[in-house]
Amino acid sequence: MRLTLTALLAVMMIGIGVPAFAELTNVEVGGSIRIRGNYYTPAVLTADPDDYEGLAFTEQRTTINVKADFTDDVTAFIELDAYDEWGNDFRENAKTGQAQSGSQDVHLYQSYIEMRDAWGTDLTIRIGRQEVLFGSEWLFGNNDTAGAFTGLYHDGVTVALNLDDVTLTGVFSKVSETGSSEEDGDVDLYALYASYTGIEDLTLDGYVAFLRSAAGPTQGNEETVELVTVGFRAAGEAGILDYEGEIAYQTGQAMVAYGVSGASNVDYDAIGLNVELGFNLDNDSQTRIFIGAALFEGNSDDGEDVGFNRLLSDWEYSEFLGNTDLSNIIVIRAGVSCQLTEKIGILGVASYFMEEEEDAALFGGGGGGGSRGTSSSNDDELGVEIGLYLTYDYSEDLYFEFGYAHFFTDDGLEDGALIAGNGMSSIGGMGDDDADYIYAETGISF
């Protein structure tokens, strides 16, 4: 795999050498600041409520980028970012203000060269560190939707063929590099994504992705995870309706289950599904009513099949149960959004959660000892979550957002449910207390 990517890079670099004397025509500087204060009340979802007084923290992400355009449709893009929690990584010595030794808070988030209409063809080529976004970001996103917005990038090459109604994009990505020797714990992603827009108000997407991981407890030997994902997406509008639907099937084998100790010689055989239907009312407040559902199959109860892996998803269905790695679950949701004024928007959402595979096998037994157990839940009903969100656009660049969510815990979560970590980790099991979450956020971009 490493030789394939190296050879591809060599060919691309030779091609880029052709317009090496291109002239600089335009330079743009941009960036963003995003700050969110979070507060969680004591709850079954996080820890024993008798020993837990809540969780409060403020996170901030700052980015700055430079884009340089050259003749011959060549662009260079560089973006730096820093993600921190207030009070952490601030100063090592609060009295003297001395900076922390060896601090590396600022990172190179993106840095790539882009060629458009390369060699007189319809190809767009990017080489370097870059975000890779496809569709609604259900499986391929950049981790910037809700809390813990750290961002997500790829190191590699993307090649896009741009025709009138079809875009075909290939991705050759190094997700993780742990050493210079061949297959020593690396994680590689190869994907082919096709999008068709030849029908008015309709987008049809199809894709196949191959994830190879030699990371985890067997790092350094030949035992790997090889996961193939094949999917289809349709999205569009029809009168007052808008719709979004995506389904994906995963197959493959794992000498060791992805990131889990003790799960060996298992197969991937799972389906993921997401649908949403919106009704847009013709009124001044731009009211939209929507309903949706999602299904992610979990590990089989016999311990032979691994559940659905969310890959690089940017969809978050809950403020409490997990981020973008929620699996082995069924979600039914509904909500309404409207624009109260020109600057103020409001959104209300209610979601119902159910464990998909109540007796799913827990690889590794939860202790990394190599045994296999099952989920501790005796009930598949996890609970109901309601959320209310308010957004105020102070200007075209600056916004303020406020949110409140409450989770009504049901028996399935009280006993513990195997739904986190792509269905590999259990959450709950601490009692039947409900949970609350409050946040305030502001952001600006330029």
Task: Chart the SSEs and their pairings.
Elements lengths: L1 H15 L7 E17 L14 E16 L3 E12 L20 E11 L6 E8 L23 E9 L3 E11 L10 E10 L5 E12 L11 E14 L2 E14 L11 E15 L7 E9 L8 E2 L22 E11 L4 E12 L5 E4 L6 E4 L6 E13 L4 E12 L1 H5 L1 E4 L4 E3 L7 E11 L1
Parallel strand pairs: 12-14
Antiparallel strand pairs: 1-2, 1-23, 2-3, 3-4, 4-5, 5-6, 6-7, 7-8, 8-9, 9-10, 10-11, 11-12, 12-13, 13-15, 15-16, 16-19, 17-18, 19-20, 20-23, 21-22
Beta-strand segment tally: 23
- Please state the overall shape, judged from the principal axes of the Cα atoms: globular
Beta-strand content estimate: over 45%
| Average pLDDT rating | 84
The CATH class: Mainly Beta
Unreliable stretches (pLDDT < 50, length at least 5) are 217-221, 365-373
Count of separate DSSP helical elements: 2
Largest sheet: 18 strands, antiparallel, barrel
* CATH architecture annotation name: Beta Barrel
Instruction: Write the CATH fold name.
Output: Porin
Radius of gyration: 23 Å
The H/E string reads HEEEEEEEEEEEEEEEEEEEEHEEE
Describe this structure in words.
By secondary structure, the chain is mainly β. It has one domain (2-90, 104-445): Beta Barrel (Porin). Helix content is 4%, strand content 52%. The chain is built from two helices and 23 strands. It has helices at residues 2-16, 411-415, and strands at residues 24-40, 55-70, 74-85, 106-116, 123-130, 154-162, 166-176, 187-196, 202-213, 225-238, 241-254, 266-280, 288-296, 305-306, 329-339, 344-355, 361-364, 371-374, 381-393, 398-409, 417-420, 425-427, 435-445. The strands form three sheets. The protein has an 18-stranded antiparallel β-barrel. The radius of gyration is 23 Å and the shape is globular. Mean pLDDT is 84; it is low at 217-221 and 365-373.
